[in-house]
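Task: complex structure prediction.
Instruction: return structure tokens for all chains below.
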Amino acid sequence: MTTPLRLGIAGLGTVGIGVVKIIQAHADLLALRSGRPVEITAVSARDRGRNRDADISRYQWEPSAVDLARREDVDVFVELIGGDEGVAREAIEAALASGKDVVTANKALLAIHGQALAEAAEAAGRVIRFEAAVAGGIPVIKTLTESLAGNRIRRVMGVMNGTCNYILTRMQSAGLPYEAVFEEARALGYLEADPTLDVGGIDASHKLAILAAIAFGSRPAFDAVEIEGIERVSIDDINRAADMGYRIKLLGVAQMTGRGLEQRMSPCLVPADSPLGQLEGGTNMVVLEGDAVGQIVLRGAGAGEGPTASAVMSDIIEIARGVRLPTFGQPAAALARPTPARTAVPAAYYLRLTLIDKPGALAKVATVLGDSGISVDRMRQYGHAAGTAPVLIVTHKTTPDAIDHAIAALPGTGVIEGEPVELRIEEV
Amino acid sequence: MTTPLRLGIAGLGTVGIGVVKIIQAHADLLALRSGRPVEITAVSARDRGRNRDADISRYQWEPSAVDLARREDVDVFVELIGGDEGVAREAIEAALASGKDVVTANKALLAIHGQALAEAAEAAGRVIRFEAAVAGGIPVIKTLTESLAGNRIRRVMGVMNGTCNYILTRMQSAGLPYEAVFEEARALGYLEADPTLDVGGIDASHKLAILAAIAFGSRPAFDAVEIEGIERVSIDDINRAADMGYRIKLLGVAQMTGRGLEQRMSPCLVPADSPLGQLEGGTNMVVLEGDAVGQIVLRGAGAGEGPTASAVMSDIIEIARGVRLPTFGQPAAALARPTPARTAVPAAYYLRLTLIDKPGALAKVATVLGDSGISVDRMRQYGHAAGTAPVLIVTHKTTPDAIDHAIAALPGTGVIEGEPVELRIEEV
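Output:
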């Protein structure tokens, strides 16, 4: 196989230019490792004239990504435009229909239309690879699809949005409230144009839905992810959790239970001395648990030019080497329609209440917890002023239903000010 | 492809039985993910009658591993016997010569005879896969060969012998000397029959040589690894290092420099709060650094039935899926003969001296360090009795040659009792 593999690259932002730079810098290495030269035939982007960090004048320019996807002199269509609708989707469909393999970093598209794309790829006898869609340079798609293929997966878990992890760790280290660090992150250019994608947990949930599909052999079901962002995480909770030996992380968890597929993305407490607890700044971490392998932890840069381009290159080299894998690790027709299940796996919970300082107040709280079937592992009442006292409770393992019951009943006691805060303590 | 993939498994110890159990438990899952059934045709082991944790009566019994490797009804020969010579090697050669693919967990064989085996596989048009040979369930072979194939690798580093990490972390947590924990580990069955393989750093060096070959596109060169085991690590050094914010790990490091390929396996200091520093017990960790991806950290169980069998299964499924990769990630003929280089990359060093308590003693030590071109970052002299005082020094970055020079000159000062201890502080 010394025929070159010919690429058409659509999207020349940070990642696209990163890919161009690797192909230009490492041509010999890539040819050696791929068994054939890897070449760029043509490129496409919104603005041809824009100043870019790589020379693209040697490639043919294609004004339309869809036309690029259909070119006869392209073997692999590399989609780095983004977005779950519009030109990215249209171009990928065009590429498959005209017999090209596809490499993409588009998590939203795969999380939402993954099943249709997997079916289209199979019908066309082509492959779609998407290592860069989840956790940047961390090889989590390959590890799940290939390295753990002999395992029944128990749980997939991870911190997969670097911006949220940056905000949470920066709040703690600088002692700043959410709003202040959010503005810092915006000024540093860490946030998406629509910041809800980051801080609202959407972006990380796209990634979780993709991992869950591979892990559990089911159709991607982004709609079924229970999502809560980091907007309501307060510096108070970060500090109190630290007092109790925990860190707060935006954690995605997917697991198959007897009731169905649980997928949740939410701020959780994890032990401060666990690998997840120790994860600082924009770094990502994915934890994979299989019945044979036990627990595997993968850590690395979740975004950025080099790491994301590295993941795109691994897909391109895989195709160049003649490796052809089913999109989500098994035939599309065999992917189950998952039964989405609301979180029911028991866990310990962290509760923070503002107690009104009057005789019998704590007894009333304890009674509500007891009536909800919740037993308390640790409780701390902090020094107080102005007639109220902050109270922290770490429960023993209990069900989300029991917690909901208690949270609903607590205001009725008349001894609580405002809303109680509850955060799940995920076992890691 | 619905033709079953037929396996011949040689070696029914812990790992072999682990593989049998996965194939029996997950037949449907494996067929779905592989695109074809995965079946065991025949097995071979030293003792047919031995009580085993899985029913092997349904498979044909082959008294000789070499005969098993040549059977017409076997597609993949799975070698789980071990050893760098003898029947394992002979059987693998027989398998390749008779047109079988090979899956093995044999690190010694690959580290020592990897080039010859890669050439034999290529000549026969077959593949050899060996994910289980390095770091058990951690997918480091696949990550290096495939996920990071778009990177020029800068450095590969890791804790790859769980027994040594168990001994070192147990010494620290229990405050016990090396000899006591060594005996504990032996009683627990953690040590190889020849414990030098573990504590002498041999086993971990086999793994390092394999990783270096893939990372740097060179022939495996186990002979060129600078090896030092953990036998001379004292509880004193563990405690002193902890005082200074470090942990001692048996760390393998491979990096390509202008002078050649540096491969070293030695007890090193790493920051206590780094992922490597936080690694407890028998867990393994591999750190991979590439020019695009930055740093990737992989963590998991480095040994044991399930994790190792999981890695073996990933190779089997890869072959079942029709994936065919060159042994060390590129054609065998293109693997460079590495120029082995003695460690020259500068680092900070930890020195421990026993200073004889007389006027001007410390000045004499400082003079030797200065004359060797070494500058001191931190120094501590501990309280003392009986006319000598322990002195700890953390140097600024310096060369191994400068350290050797100082170590050779220090006894000549007449103010040092015994041998100075020096340990490299690896930058992680």
